[in-house]
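2024-03-11 09:14:02 DEBUG pipeline.ingest accepted 1 chain
2024-03-11 09:14:02 DEBUG pipeline.ingest length=277
2024-03-11 09:14:03 DEBUG pipeline.predict start
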Amino acid sequence: MDIRELLAGKLSEEELRKVKRAFDIIGDIAIVEIDESLREKRKIIAEAIMKVHKNVRVVCSKAGPVTGEERIRPLEIIGGENRTETIHTENGCRFKLDISKVFYTPRLANERMRIARQVREDEVVVDLFAGVGPYSILVARLAKPKLVYAIDKNEFAYHYLLENIKLNKVEGRVRAFLGDCREVVEEQRIMGVDRVIMNLPKQADHFLDVAFKIVKNGGMVHFYYFLREEELFEGAFKIIQREAGRFGRRIEFLEARKCGELAPGVFRVVVDFEVNP
């Protein structure tokens, strides 16, 4: 039985059509988008979700858009336990996080695995916007790199990143840093790395200079960006080529693909490219 079937008789036909069947589940927390016209029915909807999804203990409603560099979305608890902290399992890794204080999307699980499978043993990897560690920790567990530098400026994300490094037993392979990635790579004198992960789609273009400074010749960069359909994928290519020219680096584009949709006609894309002199 799905949610709409369970709500039949409690909501009108018109209201049922507005109930979205698809939503994210992070750990044991469901994050749903409820039409404003259904606001008075939100607790009934939350109860239905928990009946259909037996593992869900908390239901949160989106209370606004994702904002700021730290990509936090305001949430309202509409059902279940009064908490926003959970442990999410993905690709064999466990991530403790508070969904009200850090950014996390389970929709990138396959994409994170795609990247991790490219990493070779003994690589040095830099995750410029690591969050709670979904890329860094998976890479460390799956690929056995020499070292992963995991950087984030959100204090809450950094707190959970440290916890998750221990939780997944990768203390020897992942080093966490709190701060702006540009400042951290300077302070730590990070240079000549094999791979750079840039998962900050709204602002990654502002940090390409960091990637070009630290990646070695023959190294790889994974660049995430938001593009409108009419810009695919040329909009990202132009930005990368322009910045590469500033640093006298030559680019070989290896792959470009969609990996999510921000809004109708606006896509999250990733561009994998190799950097050479």
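2024-03-11 09:14:41 DEBUG pipeline.report Residues 102-276 form a domain with the Rossmann fold fold (CATH 3.40.50.150).
2024-03-11 09:14:41 DEBUG pipeline.predict end
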